[in-house]
């Protein structure tokens, strides 16, 4: 903002003191500066849905950056144009900017690590035990229905539900183990001084694995009996049940 105002002020003063337009009015000069800037930088103006895929495609067409991960954005602290801007405005020196970058990268990596450890503990100690209990209960229901009616097909529906539940639990366990391996791989590099590499690993491996783990957990929420599910459901959160 400060740099932009400085540039705009120089452009405005240049027009006001122009030999070609010595009598140029302030309002006219201001409108001319705005017009010229819009023509030059109008590609950044967008009044639609900035989260839509259509805007991503349009931004790419306009030549704008699309930084999809936090480490990419943090890395901009070390960009030559960023350093030039901060030093020109006497805000931060190059060494201070680089220090800021390292701190933010380390903070990002640790935050992701906390989220991963929290998710793993929730799955291992809270969600999985409940799912196993419901699995056992459903398995017993299948046996009871078959014994009561004496017909294998009578328990077909309950059996299908049990198979669906079991497959989803297995999927959750597989993804949990995968996330644990990714977490351990990052922890093994604790002595690595390359904060950018660690942050990129967290963004490219831990975050996608964490999002992947969420899928079967969300699915299990819709399968496991509501009176057994140990956490607030989406329905309860949305409708304050």
Q: Can you tell me about this structure?
A:
Belongs to the glutamine synthetase family. It is a single chain. By secondary structure, this protein is an all-alpha fold. It has helices spanning 2-16, 26-41, 53-61, 70-75, 80-88, 94-149, 156-187, 195-223, 234-239. α1 (2-16) packs across α2, α6 (94-149) packs antiparallel against α7 (156-187) and α7 (156-187) packs antiparallel against α8.
Structure described in brief:
The protein is mainly alpha-helical. Helices cover 74% and strands 0% of the residues. The protein is elongated and about 100 Å long.
Summary tags:
single chain; 74% helix; 0% strand; elongated
Summarize model confidence as the mean pLDDT.
Answer: 88
Named CATH architecture of the largest domain: Up-down Bundle
Report the β-strand fraction as a percent range.
under 5%
Number of domains: 2
- Point out poorly predicted stretches: none
The helix count comes to: 9
Which structural class do the helices and strands define? mainly alpha
Task: Give a topology summary.
Layout (H helix, E strand, L loop, with lengths): L1 H15 L9 H16 L11 H9 L8 H6 L4 H9 L5 H56 L6 H32 L7 H29 L10 H6 L2
Helix pairs in contact: 1-2, 6-7, 6-8, 7-8
């Amino acid at each position: 903002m400060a740099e932009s105002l400085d540039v705009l002020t120089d452009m405005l003063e240049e027009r006001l003191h122009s030999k070609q337009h010595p009598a140029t009015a302030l309002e006219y000069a201001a409108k001319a500066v705005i017009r010229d800037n819009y023509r030059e930088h109008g590609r950044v103006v967008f009044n639609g849905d900035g989260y839509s895929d259509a805007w991503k495609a349009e931004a790419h067409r306009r030549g704008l950056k699309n930084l999809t991960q936090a480490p990419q954005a943090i890395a901009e602290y070390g960009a030559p144009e960023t350093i030039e801007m901060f030093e020109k405005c006497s805000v931060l020196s190059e060494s201070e900017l680089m220090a800021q970058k390292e701190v933010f990268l380390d903070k990002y990596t640790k935050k992701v690590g906390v989220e991963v450890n929290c998710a793993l503990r929730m799955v291992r100690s809270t969600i999985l035990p409940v799912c196993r209990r419901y699995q056992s209960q459903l398995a017993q229901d299948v046996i009871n229905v078959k014994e009561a009616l004496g017909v294998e097909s009578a328990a077909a529906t309950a059996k299908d539900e049990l198979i669906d539940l079991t497959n989803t639990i297995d999927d959750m366990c597989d993804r949990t183990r995968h996330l644990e391996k990714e977490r351990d791989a990052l922890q093994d590099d604790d002595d690595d001084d390359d904060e950018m590499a660690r942050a990129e690993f967290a963004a490219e491996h831990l975050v996608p694995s964490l999002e992947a783990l969420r899928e079967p957990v969300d699915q299990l929420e819709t399968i496991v009996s509501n009176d057994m599910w140990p956490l607030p459901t989406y329905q309860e959160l949305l409708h304050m049940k």
